[in-house]
Design brief:
By secondary structure, this protein is mainly α. It has 21 helices and two strands. About 75% of the residues lie in helices and about 0% in strands.
């Protein structure tokens, strides 16, 4: 392990790759600093530019965006009281009050330091648990992999903000999209006599359309409610390094606990930084000696929020690399980068591409260091970037998305695919159908179909999925996740009805 890590470190520390990591971190921070833009949007914009790169350079750039994006949300959260990304919502609870109390530099400094430590701890989790899970999953056959993918899809659908049926519908639609074109036996499906559909839909324009286009349109809609509500922002921020060191010295247990929560939650399919954010903030408040000070500008809240959402980075890589199951939406896109470079994430990746795995480890660590330096040195400029109006941002991002989709195959049809799925995704968003299960269905659909057909070719009996212990376990967990979601939804509905009756 040490040998391939050192070899990977040699690749990553080359001047060209270091520049790409720096560029990725800057793009990620900028993306996270703009309210409503999100780390996912930043990753989608950069994704197409990795096509012409070698795998090491492409992965290093994307990891840089990933690390920078998760820390960038703190800027607008602290300075504007608006979370730059969904995973920095709880940062606002204490970061903004601290800034309002005349200490914006302290709030930003604490957040950046917590983000760095959270990332480092999560990398340690990835290095330790990733190979162990991959080694265990080497025993997986097509039946187990099929059942695991089904479990991942139901888990994501079940965590879709209480909309279980809509989440399952979205996952099914994602799987249906992947059936367009030729199957593994060269049978043509769902082309409707239109020749461009015979090769199916490319994953990049579909993902950009479904998520980025719909997100940008929703941002424009929200402008109607925000006219005349612009906040003034003080960009002349000074970081009090001595105070921050003292603050962080008092937060050892909080940092470790929140980082571990972020790593573990990140490793669960369909959860990500937002869930980790709320869990770690809640735990920090419960373990605090001064819970009444939360929400008024206490360092504990910022540390819990930022260390957990940054720790999601390493945790989310664990199922993606070891099992080929992306932990969240940004990881689904990262998995797409690897696939487009001819690399299949999964247990064999640790044996067949150990240097690339080491590249991810090294890029995460170097990206964390670069993130700290960029945030501390350029924070006042990032604060100004957070004020870019959506009227300017939306057309520029849409243009970049269209260029990236076209560059994939130099095919104008891909741009039409982007806009068609963009409208489709926007309509789903309006109908409150969660988009994450849809994206995950698109990413995992081909693998699910391939593994299921392989299993049936080896044994035509569907009962084999239930007679093999691990396969039966995953299917049982899938059923349990659906049942749990149904019970949880009923409990929430009863609570809402009870509150309505009291009012």
């Amino acid at each position: 392990m040490a040998e391939f890590f050192l070899e990977a470190l040699g690749h990553v520390t080359s001047p060209a790759v270091l520049v790409l990591i720096l560029l990725g971190v800057l793009i990620g921070i900028i993306g996270g600093s703009i309210p409503g833009f999100t780390v996912t949007m930043a990753i989608l914009v950069v994704f197409p530019f990795t096509f012409a790169m070698d795998p090491v350079s492409g992965v290093a750039l994307m990891v840089g965006v990933f690390v920078g994006g998760y820390s960038g949300g703190i800027v607008s959260g602290v300075m504007l009281g608006i979370p730059g990304t969904p995973s920095s919502i709880t940062t606002v609870y204490d970061g903004y009050p601290m800034a309002q109390n005349g200490e914006p530099g302290r709030a930003l400094g604490i957040g950046v330091a917590a983000s760095f430590i959270g990332t480092v701890i999560s990398v340690g989790m990835l290095v330790f648990f990733g190979p162990l899970i991959a080694s265990f999953s080497m025993n997986f056959r097509p039946w187990e992999i099929t059942s695991l993918i089904v479990f991942a899809l139901t888990l994501v659908a079940g965590l879709s903000n209480g909309a279980l049926l809509k989440g399952l519908l979205a996952a099914a639609l994602g799987l249906l999209i992947t059936t367009v074109g030729y199957d593994r036996n060269s049978n043509l499906r769902f082309d409707f006599g239109f020749s461009p559909l015979s090769s199916g839909f490319e994953i990049l324009p579909v993902m950009i359309g479904i998520f980025a286009f719909s997100q940008l349109m929703s941002n424009l809609e929200e402008l109607r409610d925000e006219k005349g509500l612009k906040k003034k922002i003080e960009t002349n921020v000074a970081i009090p390094y001595g105070t921050i060191i003292k603050d962080m010295a008092k937060q050892k247990l909080n940092i470790v606990r929140s980082s571990l929560i972020g790593s573990l939650v990140g490793a669960l399919p369909g959860t990500g930084g937002t869930v980790a954010n709320f869990i770690s903030y809640d735990q920090a408040k419960k373990f605090s000696r001064h819970p009444e000070r939360f929400g008024k500008g206490i360092p504990d809240g910022i540390v819990a929020s930022e260390s957990s959402n940054s720790a999601v980075a390493g945790g989310a890589f664990i199922p993606t690399l070891a099992l080929g199951i992306p932990g969240d939406l940004p990881m689904a896109i990262m998995m797409g980068v690897l696939i487009l470079h001819g690399i299949t994430p999964g247990p064999l990746m640790f044996e067949q591409n150990p240097v690339l795995v080491g590249t991810i480890y090294a890029s995460l660590l170097i990206g964390a260091v670069v993130m700290v330096l960029c945030q501390l040195l350029l924070v006042r400029y990032f604060a100004k970037i957070s004020l870019i109006p959506q009227q300017v941002l939306v057309p520029v991002v849409l243009m970049l998305c269209a260029i990236g989709s076209y560059a994939l195959n130099n095919n104008l049809f891909d741009i039409w695919v982007l806009f068609a799925f963009g409208i489709f995704g926007y309509l789903l968003w309006k109908a409150e159908v969660p988009l994450t299960p849809l994206i995950l269905g698109v990413v995992l659909g081909n693998n699910l179909e391939s593994q299921m057909f392989r299993a049936l070719e080896l044994d035509s009996s569907w009962m084999t999925f239930l007679t093999r212990p691990l396969s039966a376990l995953f299917l049982g967990l899938a059923v349990a996740s659906v049942v749990f979601s149904i019970l949880q939804n009923r409990k929430i509905n009863r609570a809402l009805k009870a509150r309505g009756a009291e009012v």
